[in-house]
Amino acid sequence: MSTPLPYPEHLRVRVEEYLREIDFLPIAPNERDEADGTQGLVEAMRYSLLAGGKRFRPVLALATVEALGEDPGRLLPAAAALELIHTYSLIHDDLPAMDDDDLRRGKPTCHKAFGEDAAILAGDALFAEAVRLVCEAQTGGPAVQIGILSQISRATGVGGMVGGQFLDLRDAGLQSDESLRRVHLLKTGRLIGACVECALVLAPPAPKIAATYRAFAHELGLLFQIVDDILDETGSEDLLGKPIGADARMGKATYVSVHGLARARDLAAERHHHAHALLDQIPGATDDLASLADHVAQRQN
Amino acid sequence: MSTPLPYPEHLRVRVEEYLREIDFLPIAPNERDEADGTQGLVEAMRYSLLAGGKRFRPVLALATVEALGEDPGRLLPAAAALELIHTYSLIHDDLPAMDDDDLRRGKPTCHKAFGEDAAILAGDALFAEAVRLVCEAQTGGPAVQIGILSQISRATGVGGMVGGQFLDLRDAGLQSDESLRRVHLLKTGRLIGACVECALVLAPPAPKIAATYRAFAHELGLLFQIVDDILDETGSEDLLGKPIGADARMGKATYVSVHGLARARDLAAERHHHAHALLDQIPGATDDLASLADHVAQRQN
Lengths: 301, 301
Fold this sequence. Notes:
The structure is a homodimer of 301-residue chains.
Chain A: H1 9-21, H2 29-34, H3 39-49, H4 56-67, H5 76-94, E1 103-104, E2 107-108, H6 110-114, H7 116-136, H8 142-156, H9 161-170, H10 177-202, H11 207-234, H12 237-240, H13 246-249, H14 255-259, H15 261-280, H16 287-298
Antiparallel strand pairs in A: 1-2
Helix pairs in contact in A: 1-5, 3-7, 4-5, 4-10, 4-16, 5-7, 5-10, 8-10, 9-10, 10-11, 11-15, 11-16, 15-16
């Protein structure tokens, strides 16, 4: 854990290029004509999708495939789908009726740039197009595709991301460690877990190894959230591209509000250490996974 | 076309029972505990999903399977998924930033009853759970499941329902026959088409027969929308459960505003007639499909 490993840029670049080239309009020429006028919707989708960032979720999915000894390119469509879904969740979370954020990565949020109606629909369409991408571009055969969509839909629905966002909005003020853990597990942990699960569907290892990958994903999700909460307290607005202290002002429980800053930093170090210990138990090239854990532990935005 | 055939109640009842029994909480006991607190979200989803109605889309899907000579029960999960998606679209369309409706089937809309944040999330979760349902409950094997999800996601994304809603919001005032046709094809036609397509994926007939089914679905979608526009002008608020004239007030193009009431009624009669003519070319028990066409032509809400 001395010098952090460099971020797996080769995977981020592949994801970025793939995302830029997704054609959201229908393929058949006659259907393309019918969709004339929806370019404004696609513009709103691409505005949020192509706003940059580390592409942490799809890179995690691809790095897991790599560690499993397979060509990461085989999971690109599903990895991109995970980023589409992450983007849709950010667009909806930023809405005035939800977290009411005006800035995201230093740019106006989708509803500020395109209107609230277009932002709701851009999120909805990104979700549909994510499913379409796995159905129409993901390789590995229908059983792999359904396995992937099963993981993605479970991680996204009531028992995942959307359920977690509901808890987050409704539990504000409930400052218990238990409710905090649950909100984060659902809101961010399950989708991060799904990135690893999709790779396990494509290239399944022995059950014991799969369990270690899952445990790693769990630690990574916890680490991600603890660092998020620390940054909300101590981060730079310039680097984060959004106001700090927003969660605290909304009375939301965070690792910092529940445990204090020093203990939150200790918890992050423990999760980081445990993530590395799990990777040591996994055969194969886990360097990129280790570098992702380092990145999450040390990120400034 | 003399006496209308009775609505296929046996199929509606099966759909209704299936929808009531969907368990939106995760299955694994430990995951169930984690999702503790999301019951309020499930309540909002079920409030809108179980508000009654004819279940036109899933019944259409099942009636098509029946006409194809297969057991309609085999498509129940996908048929239910189509109703979940239809419900999610109604919840989002009713939002203040969209059509801003307070009433739906005579009851307060989801955001009026549960708040705007819960309504956005209830719609999002219904979509995710629809995909999960097809992944985890639909029979016929992975190739059939992926074929179904491909149809559903195409009918829902940019080239379908969501794209159509975008056009509808942004084209207000654009009173051309061409833009009207395109909005409706995407907004309602594609999902109605997907009901028939899902049945064709499960029990594929000869290509020529499949094309006739598709043409029937197209006529049915047009008929549905023309009657919708006529009801918005002439319907009973009590029967519709919502204020009439809303589209006209928002300056939206409708079949009535573009063609006048008399011509709109003629167009509906033509579509209805053509739908029956197509069914006459299909071998098999198409009575329930014919009855659905009659129902759409004569519905009061």
